[in-house]
């Protein structure tokens, strides 16, 4: 085991890897309930969605562990699944198979971009300062997710955001998870993030946040598999409809841009916590990570669960000591088991994972010291990424705002020649993306 995953060489151990995998799984487990809740609006059977969500996440996370050997986990991406539900009704004639065909096509195209080296080349063209900015933005974003899930941050009355009800059970569970996690982490207690989640789950029992499971075993339902190749009402295959509809091709481009840069940001964030980010801000051995992530996107469309992508919650496992693919394999196995025991897994509320996400956000914010804020050509684009990711609740949108700002500031400060050609292309692509998304 050690000779394959090399976790010993990376300063980890078998026990630490397994624990980190469990931490990542618990931080991501909410997707088992949330993905069906969103996609069921497109007319897909909820039971089949829960099963396929678990299997898709499990299979692709295990592939990530085996082929990339890094502590990254995959599951159906939030945001994209909401878009799938939306286009099913508005652009796909109510046929969710066609929407999954869009996802499948996007995944295949992004895989081709990886295989021809374009995705890596664009990552290499990003200035080091902007790479630090992505980590900072992801830190704020992760913390925001955790705080919102616990109801600590809510939509305000007359304001965009506000403080939640301090007497709310979910608020209390979230605060408990933060206090326990930070207290243990400050004492360097191994597994502090995992312990924080478990304590919060237990605290949620008397408060009514942790619900009793509705059962133990759930039957497998694979009826969503093969969605892009299902026949539509007029007898044609769903994927054929996508390829012959210009508007659906535009949607596929929008999804491609989102997947493309979401994964880039997530990989850098996890690499920082997992100690495989180089001094110049490059992710070590990024190619197999991008290949698996691209295959996962197409696999998500095939399985009927929306695009499967690398989850930013993977940072929780990396922060808990995960350094190799064994962490991912552990997470993946747990997802596959969850396909059979999803009623039990669903007792872990999103509020219980608040502490882990907030603490990881804090760790990632330390990147802010690497940025020269006195230089507007570096500081302002950095600010736009950091603010954009969290304020728009979109990794790709925040990165796009920062890229465009970088090019504009460079032009007006006489540094246009320092911009690499692919950065020009990326900024232009984001302009198009913002107008067609």
TrEMBL record:
Pfam family, one: Xan_ur_permease
Listed GO CC annotations: endomembrane system; plasma membrane
Keywords of the record: Membrane, Transmembrane, Transmembrane helix, Transport
Coiled-coil segments: none
Annotated compartments: Endomembrane system
Topology in membrane: Multi-pass membrane protein
Transmembrane segments: 20-41, 47-67, 96-118, 130-154, 166-185, 192-210, 333-362, 382-412, 419-436
Main location: membrane
GO MF, one example: purine nucleobase transmembrane transporter activity
Protein family according to the UniProt entry: Belongs to the nucleobase:cation symporter-2 (NCS2) (TC 2.A.40) family. Azg-like subfamily.
Name of protein: NCS2 family permease
The organism of origin for this protein: Collinsella acetigenes
Source species taxonomy: Bacteria, Bacillati, Actinomycetota, Coriobacteriia, Coriobacteriales
């Amino acid at each position: 085991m050690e000779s394959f995953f090399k976790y010993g060489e990376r300063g980890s151990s078998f026990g630490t890897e397994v624990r980190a995998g469990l931490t990542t799984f618990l931080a991501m487990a909410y997707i088992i309930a949330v993905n069906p809740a969103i996609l069921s609006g497109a007319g897909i059977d909820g039971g089949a969605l829960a099963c396929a969500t678990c299997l898709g996440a499990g299979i692709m996370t295990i592939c990530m562990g085996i082929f990339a050997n890094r502590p990254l986990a995959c599951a159906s991406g939030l945001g994209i699944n909401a878009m799938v539900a939306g286009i099913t009704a508005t652009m796909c004639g109510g046929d969710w198979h066609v929407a999954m065909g869009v996802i499948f096509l996007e995944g295949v195209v992004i895989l081709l971009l990886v295989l021809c080296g374009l995705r890596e080349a664009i990552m290499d063209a990003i200035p080091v300062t902007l790479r630090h900015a992505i980590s900072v933005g992801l830190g704020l974003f992760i913390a925001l997710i955790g705080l919102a899930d616990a109801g600590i941050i809510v939509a305000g009355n007359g304001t965009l955001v506000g403080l939640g009800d301090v007497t709310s059970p979910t608020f209390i569970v979230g605060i408990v998870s933060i206090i326990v996690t930070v207290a243990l982490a400050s004492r360097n207690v191994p597994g502090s993030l995992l312990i924080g989640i478990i304590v919060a789950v237990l605290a949620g029992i008397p408060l009514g946040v942790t619900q009793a499971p509705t059962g133990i075993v759930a039957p497998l339902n694979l009826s969503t598999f093969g969605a892009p190749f299902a026949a539509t009402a007029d007898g044609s295959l769903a994927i054929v409809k996508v390829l012959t509809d210009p508007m659906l091709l535009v949607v596929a481009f929008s999804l491609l841009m989102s997947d493309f840069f979401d994964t880039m940001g997530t990989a850098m964030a996890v690499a920082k916590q997992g100690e495989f980010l180089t001094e110049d801000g490059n992710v070590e051995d990024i190619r197999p990570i991008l290949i698996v992530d691209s295959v996962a996107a197409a696999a998500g469309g095939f399985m009927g669960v929306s695009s499967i992508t690398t989850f930013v919650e993977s940072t929780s496992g990396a922060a808990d000591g995960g350094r190799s693919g064994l962490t991912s394999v552990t997470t993946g196995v747990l997802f596959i088991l969850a396909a059979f025991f999803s009623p039990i897994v669903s007792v872990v509320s999103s509020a219980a994972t608040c502490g882990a996400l907030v603490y990881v956000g804090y760790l990632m914010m330390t990147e802010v010291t690497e940025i020269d804020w006195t230089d507007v050509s570096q500081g302002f684009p950095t600010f736009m990424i950091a603010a954009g990711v969290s304020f728009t609740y979109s990794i790709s949108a925040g990165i796009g705002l920062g890229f465009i700002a970088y090019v504009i500031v460079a032009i007006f400060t006489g540094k246009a020649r320092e911009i690499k050609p692919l950065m020009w292309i990326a900024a232009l692509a984001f302009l198009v993306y913002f107008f067609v998304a």
